[in-house]
């Protein structure tokens, strides 16, 4: 009798313990913390993790108690698993190959401080694409500098109002977080008539920006290598093909563990490169062409510069996840302020100093203006950084495409590209390789860094950073907004829309003309 009593007490204690552990695992899983460090893709890794939770859900593996004893609660074992088909838990082998989202969103990881969050935002908005900012000053003069400041102010504001859309007031008058991601906000704005339309729009914009980022990496790699070794009988297109051959193994990636180890070194190397460029420009301060900086704009090319500047500030897509992982979310606004102020100052100084040094000879990628002895070393480092950065946006784009088209449960458009053991099918691998080849073809036929960057910034950058946050803010919090907030939101939406349409049209015209020229050649 005593033995039976002890057994029942032990079973009850085990049940309570397992249930508590399972609940805590669910809490940590919903946090979805990811310690990404690469500047152009950190945001999308965060967003993908939350997007997977939103669209596919989490399911607990609940095991029934042995013997079906009356009055006893079934023990909960195992942990939370992401579902590829939305029907059941992944097998152990599949969970290991589930990708970066499931791998990086482990349970029990500590939340990040405001400084760590600021580091992630800084990486996102101070990446290697700042190398195109002096080219924006070439076509905009002082107005280009003003636009760098204006874009920083607007992106900081829209980042804050986007986070405000995550919260609502409950019945007790408390402000609580009811949404987790950009996709959740978009879906909430389109509900109840079109409950998934907003999320699909955000996902499409995300995919376009990710793929265009991959194309830009191939373009800049070919451009830098061609200008570093002009005496070699290798064209820019050939260098792009060589770079893509190096990147082809990205199609076989199961996770980003190996690549992420180099991301911090790449970021630090980029800051060193920026310092070297500025140091060289300062050494030629006596020859600066102040008279070349004027209050004028090139009507045909300045709209492209708008897209370039906006693209360099894109970070909104991952801010909801970042804020949710902060130890003290109240510090989010302060963090956004100092990161964007720092970015504004550094970008403005870098663009102005570089333009003053080379004036009308400023090229699309500013490092191409450096002397040949310095240029080769700097460009090789930049190419290495671009090649190591390519897998992150590529893998994020693949994850979004696979979940949207092949793994979205009964709503998937195509059969699942993963087998029952969690391994990628051969035709799924073929599609990944096709995506790598697509980025190569775009880089070959449109090898214009500024045009592609301007097009992406005008299309998806302005939409994700200007238009959608202001529109969502008005839609979800209309009754609680002060008049000046309404004015700012409307003004940002109108100005952002004009800049987006203008930049997109001019960038598209330039790309079509470049495509025709390359086709004739």
TrEMBL record:
PANTHER family linked: AMINO ACID TRANSPORTER (PTHR22950), VESICULAR INHIBITORY AMINO ACID TRANSPORTER (PTHR22950:SF689)
Cellular component aspect of the GO annotation: cytoplasmic vesicle membrane; inhibitory synapse; presynapse; vacuolar membrane
Protein's recorded name: Vesicular inhibitory amino acid transporter
Positions of transmembrane segments: 143-167, 207-226, 262-282, 302-322, 334-356, 376-401, 429-446, 452-474, 486-505
Membrane topology field: Multi-pass membrane protein
Family: Belongs to the amino acid/polyamine transporter 2 family.
GO biological process, one term: neurotransmitter transport
Domain Amino acid transporter transmembrane: 111-507
Catalytic activity: glycine(out) + n H(+)(in) = glycine(in) + n H(+)(out); 4-aminobutanoate(out) + n H(+)(in) = 4-aminobutanoate(in) + n H(+)(out); beta-alanine(out) + n H(+)(in) = beta-alanine(in) + n H(+)(out)
Keywords associated with the record: Cell projection, Cytoplasmic vesicle, Membrane, Neurotransmitter transport, Synapse, Transmembrane, Transmembrane helix, Transport
Region (Disordered): 65-99
Originating organism: Chauna torquata (Southern screamer)
Function: Antiporter that exchanges vesicular protons for cytosolic 4-aminobutanoate or to a lesser extend glycine, thus allowing their secretion from nerve terminals. The transport is equally dependent on the chemical and electrical components of the proton gradient. May also transport beta-alanine. Acidification of GABAergic synaptic vesicles is a prerequisite for 4-aminobutanoate uptake.
Pfam families: Aa_trans
Keyword Phosphoprotein annotated: no
Encoding gene per record: Slc32a1_1
A GO MF label: gamma-aminobutyric acid:proton antiporter activity
Compartment annotation: Cytoplasmic vesicle membrane; Presynapse
């Amino acid at each position: 009798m005593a033995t039976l009593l002890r057994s029942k007490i032990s079973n009850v204690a085990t049940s309570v313990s397992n249930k508590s552990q399972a609940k805590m695992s669910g809490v940590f899983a919903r946090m979805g913390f990811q310690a990404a460090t690469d500047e152009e893709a950190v945001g999308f890794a965060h967003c993908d993790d939350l997007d997977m939770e939103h669209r596919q859900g989490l399911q607990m593996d609940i095991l029934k108690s042995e013997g079906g004893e009356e009055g006893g609660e079934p023990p909960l074992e195992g942990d939370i698993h992401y579902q590829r088909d939305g029907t059941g838990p992944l097998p152990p082998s599949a969970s290991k190959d589930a990708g970066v989202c499931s791998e990086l969103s482990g349970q029990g990881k500590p939340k990040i401080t405001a400084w760590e969050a600021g580091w992630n935002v800084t990486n996102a908005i101070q990446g290697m694409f700042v190398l195109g900012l002096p080219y924006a000053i070439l076509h905009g003069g002082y107005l280009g500098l003003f636009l760098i400041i204006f874009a920083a102010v607007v992106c900081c504001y829209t980042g804050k109002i986007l986070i405000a859309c995550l919260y609502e007031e409950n019945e007790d008058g408390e402000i609580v977080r009811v949404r987790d991601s950009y996709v959740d906000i978009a879906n909430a704005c389109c509900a109840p008539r079109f409950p998934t339309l907003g999320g699909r729009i955000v996902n499409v914009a995300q995919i376009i920006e990710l793929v265009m980022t991959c194309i830009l990496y191939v373009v800049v790699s070919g451009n830098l290598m061609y200008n570093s070794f002009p005496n070699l009988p290798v064209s820019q297109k050939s260098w792009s093909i060589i770079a893509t051959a190096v990147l082809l193994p990205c199609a076989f990636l199961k996770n980003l563990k190996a690549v992420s180890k180099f991301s911090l070194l790449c970021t630090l190397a980029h800051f060193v490169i920026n310092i070297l460029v500025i140091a060289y420009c300062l050494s030629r301060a006596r020859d600066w062409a102040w008279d070349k900086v004027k209050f004028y704009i090139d009507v045909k090319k300045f709209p492209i510069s708008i897209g370039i500047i906006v693209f360099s500030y894109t970070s909104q897509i991952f801010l909801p996840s970042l804020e949710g992982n902060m130890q003290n979310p109240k510090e989010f606004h302060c963090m956004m302020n100092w990161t964007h102020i720092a970015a504004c100052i550094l970008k403005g100084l870098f663009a102005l100093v570089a333009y003053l040094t080379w004036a009308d000879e400023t090229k699309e990628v500013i490092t191409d203006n450096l002397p040949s002895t310095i240029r080769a070393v700097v460009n090789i480092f930049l190419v290495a950084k671009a090649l190591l950065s390519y897998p992150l946006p590529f893998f994020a784009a693949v994850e979004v495409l696979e979940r949207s088209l092949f793994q979205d449960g009964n709503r998937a458009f195509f059969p699942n590209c993963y087998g029952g053991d969690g391994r990628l099918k051969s035709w799924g691998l073929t599609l990944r390789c096709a995506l790598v080849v697509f980025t190569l073809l775009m880089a070959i036929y449109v090898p214009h860094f500024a045009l592609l960057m301007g097009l992406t910034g005008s299309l998806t950058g302005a939409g994700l950073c200007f238009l959608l946050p202001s529109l969502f803010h008005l839609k979800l919090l209309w009754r609680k907004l002060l008049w000046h907030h309404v004015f700012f939101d409307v003004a940002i939406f109108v100005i952002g829309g004009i800049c987006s349409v203008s930049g997109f049209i001019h960038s598209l015209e330039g790309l079509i003309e470049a495509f025709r020229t390359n086709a004739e050649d």
